[in-house]
From TrEMBL, chain A:
Protein name, per record: Fe-S cluster assembly protein SufD
Protein source organism: Nonomuraea terrae
SUF system FeS cluster assembly SufBD core domain mapped to chain residues: 123-349
Family: Belongs to the iron-sulfur cluster assembly SufBD family.
Domain of life: Bacteria
Pfam family, any one: SUFBD_core
Gene name of this polypeptide: sufD
BP GO annotations: iron-sulfur cluster assembly
Automatic annotation (TrEMBL), chain B:
Keyword DNA-binding applies: no
CDD domains tied to this protein: ABC_FeS_Assembly (cd03217)
Database matches in Gene3D superfamilies: P-loop containing nucleotide triphosphate hydrolases
Transmembrane segments: none
Annotated Pfam families: ABC_tran
GO molecular function: ATP binding; ATP hydrolysis activity
Domain ABC transporter: 4-245
Protein name (record): Fe-S cluster assembly ATPase SufC
Family, similarity comment: Belongs to the ABC transporter superfamily. Ycf16 family.
Entry superkingdom: Bacteria
SMART domains in alphabetical order: AAA
Gene name as annotated: sufC
Taxonomic lineage of the native organism: Bacteria, Bacillati, Actinomycetota, Actinomycetes, Streptosporangiales
Organism (species): Nonomuraea terrae
NCBIfam families, per the entry: sufC
Amino acid sequence: MGLNEKPLSTLHEKASYDLADFEVPTGREEAWRFTPLSRLKGLHNGEAASSEAVGHVRVDVDAAPEVTVETVGRDDARVGKSFVPGDRVSAQAWNSFEKATVITVPREAVTSKHTVLTLTGSGDGAAYGHIVVKVEPLAEAVIVLDHKGSAVYADNIEFIVGDGANLKVVSLQDWDDDAVHVSHHHAQLAKDATFRSFVVTFGGDLVRLSPSVSYTAPGGDADLSGVYFVDAGQHLEHRLLVDHSQPNCKSNVDYRGALQGQDAHAVWIGDVIIRVEAEGTDTYELNRNLILTDGARADSVPNLEILTGEVAGAGHASASGRLDDEHTFYLQARGIPYDEARRLVVRGFLGQLIEKIQIEEIRERVFGALEAELAR
Amino acid sequence: MSTLEIRDLQVAVEDKEILRGVNLTVKSGETHAIMGPNGSGKSTLAYAIAGHPKYTITGGQVLLDGADLLELSVDERARAGLFLAMQYPVEVPGVSVSNFLRSAVTAVRGEAPKLREFAKDLKNGMDALSIDPAFAQRNLNEGFSGGEKKRHEILQMELLKPKIAVLDETDSGLDVDALRVVSEGINRFRASGETGVLLITHYTRILRYVKPDFVHVFAGGRIVEAGGPELADKLESEGYEQYTKASA
Ligand SMILES: Nc1ncnc2c1ncn2[C@@H]1O[C@H](COP(=O)(O)OP(=O)(O)O)[C@@H](O)[C@H]1O
Ligand SMILES: [Mg+2]
């Protein structure tokens, strides 16, 4: 068996809260082979944690009135319940964070506005974080995570979605150019829970974001979307894992990116496991990359492992390619200059996803950021 | 008053010679029909004039009012007054018809149209071509039927008001009702007398609705016979066989 064929279902065997259980990655491991370790600023090998330099990521919360926001210590019983770190940096973040933010949406509460967590980075050294968003049964909430500033930041975020609850999350990685961010987003879906995640990664020198989904009962429905725009020198990596271990759950993954400039590097890993007991699973995952210039590279690896014979639907697709000549020709043949034609096509390609963001001000901000990238 | 002059045009696709010396002059107020069998090079002529990157000009000239079109980029040619209604309009995901049309009209006119005026022009244009107004919000050509795509090409022509329009098999794949609607659009467009039309077709059927002034028979990458409307009648009864034999 080659590296690629290692069964997904064995990936969790390594999960642990203990940092010592994870060897320092060398870059040869399947999980690390795409990531430029030398640019992680020591998040992966303990150097950042033992360094004198300190970094901060301040968390400001503008909350809906229906939710409670608490800052708690490491020993709080609600922290770390829905997931176990699955790699070295996640375990480092788990071992190094000092305070966690816990957002609770009470049972049956329907929030009257979205709750915004602004995470602002500063300082020279590394910072670590932990956030728990707990949506109790039948409650509905919208959460925005807005990452900005400069940081070397590793964190874990737990989204715990209760029976019949509905959580929508938008996570904006709008970092300054020099930021390094390694993050795990884990969503745990209870019976008939709905989870919508929208990830937007435009900023940072290196961003490695690993959204995962698990189900604790039937009827869960997860939709994970993402857009990224990779400029010269940036490494933007998204690693998705959906673990179908319960019957009759759904998942849909759609990530799209555009790349331009020398050494712009996008990585997308889409792992979906349908376990023996997950009969009636309906899943689809898609990744598309539009490569706008020479020198940019997209690695896109969908993995679908089906262990049951009874699926409702299971598919994946991945396509990376250049701007289509036929598209630009058609627009130019109507008088539209090449640059404008290119802008329209890229905006269209990513815009079809961006339109899914329901918060107008965020949607407009993402479109604005896209226009700014295209104007570079 | 405009003139499109095609002089001894030679075009290759992937090193294969397709057009072998095409000569044709189209003036405003005139409608020229180009008729020829499949594979004779009609679309190659249309695309080469418009500047599609796949076609290499190996000889000859194309002038619009004396200016060398072949020196211009695709969009510059369109802004100079050339329009190509495509045989197979391309689907462009995520770009809405209204956004596309507004961008095109802005580019060709050199300034953004007043929003209300544009909305009115668009509505009138769509009504005249029996296009459902909901199409304005659809993605460009995505999921359009063959007939819807062709009507949409004519809508663009009417909005952009080119000096010379090249229509590549706009009639193919249309049922009789759609053919009538599309033909009326072409006739409205040429009624001003200020535009020239180069109507490329495989069949004589559309010529019953859009009367040509000149008919050219295209075979083997060049014009092999030219005449008036009566030539279309001859093709109707005799077909292309004599020409394909001669050019083979
Ligand atoms: N992209 C292409 N690559 C290779 N050959 C082509 C291409 N486009 C056209 N041809 C060839 O050029 C010739 C003329 O094609 P075309 O101009 O489409 O003819 P028509 O429009 O008259 O049917 C045909 O032999 C066709 O096979
Ligand atoms: Mg053709």
